[in-house]
Amino acid sequence: MTDCVEIALTSDTAALHWSCSAWDVRTGTQLMTYRNGGPSGPNTLLTVSNKFVVAGNLTKPILTIWPINRQEPAHVKYMLPATAGAVAISPDGNHCLVAHLHSFTVYNLHTGASMATIAHHYGKVTVLRFTDDGTHFVSAGQDCRIVVWNLARTVQQKDAGRMLYELADFTLPVSDVLVGKGGMKAILAAVSLDRSAKLYELATGRILLSVLFPVALSVLSLNALETELFVGDKKGLIYACNLQSVPRSKEIHLQQDQLERSVFRGHKKSVTCLSVSMDNETLLSGSEDESVIVWHVRTRQQLKLIPHKAPITNAFFIVTPRSMFDQSREVPITFPPFQKMVSTRQDRERAIFELPILNKSLRERSTSGLAIEELLPTTVGFVNNISKGTEIEELEQEVQRLKGINQRLYQQSIRAIMNEVEQ
Questions:
Q1: Which structural domain, as residue segments, surrounds residue 81?
Q2: Where does the signal sequence lie (predicted)?
Q3: Which of 144, 202, 314, 367 could make an SS bond with 188 (beta carbons 3.0 to 4.6 A apart)?
């Protein structure tokens, strides 16, 4: 068991001994490997609720899911319409976006239902990103456009072909997109092969800043405070841009000599992945030169080099999952296979959800720390096992308490909405 707060999850195009692997970034030690999933494609490797690892195969139309503490994947085959170009999963773990060629499909992970298939882009979709509240998502690709979507409207198939809005400010394919913190009030950042990095206001699509570099850009990342922007180019260099020094104009042209003071040198080929640690002190980068490098941000010095067998497709920091190193713990994969046909409204209304039962009394839980995902299964378990009047009374009291909380949340939401309207 490692005591490292954050570890790195990486993958390459070879997958000789494993499909993806977890690393201790301080020592370069390999902590866990996930096998028999084939090579993982770019922007297709991610984790779900710190319990599962999901990866899209680079050469086959298959999605592979591993329990976080097992090297072997689930026996269920998650077949896709085509090879996954990008994969994204909502923060609550309910919905999965899978891009294939110029379209993408929205799946419900708990039922396997295909909720909607959107074919809006003219080129291959290479990037899918959710907002941190899971209400909206962003798609981008080789048609030089970035499109913002509302998840609820897309799932309900209401104006499914109509996006919230789109950005068409790039002249060459979009390489990478990043959505900051704050839901729809977040910052949307993107880089393109046309050498530009742009920052937008996600709620309105208004451009905040455009920085033009002397070389084509391939990937970007923001630190947790969103005060520093890191971009990687096709030549293997990484640049750091301080966003606190406000420019006088929205468009800035940077020359090579201006970038020398904030460049990270170490990769020999195109940078494919960038990730910043939670403390903003460490930068993780992957490249086509078959290496992953851990950097110290302030000094721009290499802390650790992790060699691989092929070009890197994914590399990012994750918080160390507690269950990753507990082999005795069972983490069942309850996700059914994906359906091929888009489900109808009647099918979704007849959907049945199976919830695990937790044999834990209400008194054993802290009232102040009650979790929503813990409340529902426990309540279901008690409904199925009620035998005494005292338990019924406890449940009724709990229901009344939750109704009071819901009423207060509703009133607070109304006041917030009215304040925004008056402003």
A1: 6-319
A2: none
A3: 202
